Amino acid sequence: MQGFVFPGIDRPATGMKSVDREYPAHRSVSGARQSKCVMSPSNAGMVAETIERRNKHWFVRTKVASDLIIQVGDSSFHLHKLPMVMRSGHLNRLVFQRSDAERETSLKIHIDNLPGGTKVFELVVKFCYGWKVDLTAANIAQLYCAAHFLEMSDDFEQGNLISKTEAFLSFLIFSSWKDTFRILKSCESISSWANEFKITKQSAEAIAWKACTNVKAFGSSENDNAQCFNVLPNNAENLKFEDEADIWWFEDVSFLRIDHFIEVIQALKCKGMRADLVGSCIAHWTAKWLARITSGLERMTPKHMTHQLLRVTAECLIKVLPTEENSVTCNFILHLLKLGFMTKINSELLSMLERRIAFMLDQCRAPDLLVKNYGGKDSVHDVGLIVRVVVSYVSIVLSSPTPKMFAVGRLIDGYLTLVAKDENLTVNSFQSLVEALPKDARYCDDSLYRAIDMYLKAHPNLTEEERMSLCGSLEYHRLSQEAREHVMKNDRLPLKITTRFILLEQVNMTRSMTAIGSNYQRTKTQAIVGVNKGLGKGWMNAKKEINLMTKEVETMRVQLNDLQMCKLKLQNRLKRCII
């Protein structure tokens, strides 16, 4: 490990302490060794002999008796005025605003809301008394904010705590990938201070810059775009990439808290990261976060706080989604929409998501619409969610059918076949989705009939009324001949539907035979005219042909009578069933 000379850090004498440099590594943050620095003040007004701790009390031993007690939280520090007020503007005011009589005796000062609390103030005390302080990625941000809180600037003492912590903080943020994440983690307890002093923003920008240094992440040319990864559209939790080098940073970013993650995403956008990479990063983070929620890793949070956290998180994720086409998958947006309904997020955000999915429907596949329910008695997949999206789509496309609408019709029929076998799927839910699209959104109802038949097969205990209501959307003229024949033989369908199709088939056959009879009659007339005009040479052949056609017409009339009798029998049977 090479040494790195960093000016202004650790000057116990005239030399400068070297700081270990650690380069960014494309691997997980957890378990890696932290960068470390030893810091001491350039000039100590009073050096402590020992610093002792007894329960929640700290005692600094010097040749002079203690004349200052500082209460931080439920802990007290028995200190001296001189080393503390000469470095801290905040403590200087608190001490010297007291009367002369009070200053001559031992003072007790309460400090509330100090960033980092007792542990950080202990480091401040060591620094003020000339002791060496170990700086790490885990404490540097809190110590830097505490230094600002206590106003420990160079105006009071050259090489004061603000300047030294700022130097090491900047060094870590811009030199070490893993330490930047540790810094963000340490900022979770001091969010307002970290935001005020731009620690969060600078850390996010550093992460974005390092992620974007991978050339393949920019993709401004066709060659770069060819290296783009593919996200499986049917499941937002499973990400597959052509080039893992593009997404080496996904895993580390997925452990950030939502506010820090949003900062990173905004920084990535500003740096020009490809929209599809940004969208997939958001999907990856969401999948990891939901896995932690559902697996119970965050059970320490009260239930009402968990619900509020879910709602705020969902709203933040929706607002930060990239708007570019194909930057996020339809399946992921559907999962966000479901999360939004569960947590009752802003209605405008819900409408925005519904419209965005609606515009993507014509490019989706049926598996893309599968979003699971998690209730024990609920259907496996959330069909109601798809109904809302389809209704939104129809409200947008109110004009005459377009090729895109026919594509959506095929999509919904395909989705219906996927969910039809679910035993917990109610008739109302299934029928609502069938009726959500207008009838003219389909070229043909064969796929719809197939889905309905699958549903009836999986739900044999439906009442006759439920089956009749479900099959009411089937129309004879919108089915192929093969499908019609299947309907007339299908005992799962209501008898009334089967009878109706048989009667319509008879009517269709009657019309066909009537047309054929007319053609035969015209042929007969044409033959007689030909005989009369001829010289008589072929009149015997024409007569035979006419007799043959007459017999065929008679045969067809007999078949038609048989069909009429069959019709009467079916009608009588239907009446008995109804009675």
TrEMBL record:
The keyword RNA-binding does not apply. GO terms for biological process: protein ubiquitination. Transmembrane segments: none annotated. Residues 66-137 form the BTB domain. InterPro entries: BTB/POZ_dom (IPR000210), NPH3/RPT2-like (IPR043454), NPH3_dom (IPR027356), SKP1/BTB/POZ_sf (IPR011333). Residues 247-508 form the NPH3 domain. Gene3D superfamilies: Potassium Channel Kv1.1, Chain A. Keywords: Ubl conjugation pathway. It holds the Pfam family NPH3. Pathway: Protein modification; protein ubiquitination. It comes from the Eukaryota. PANTHER family: OS12G0117600 PROTEIN (PTHR32370). Belongs to the NPH3 family. This is Root phototropism protein 3-like. It comes from Prunus avium.
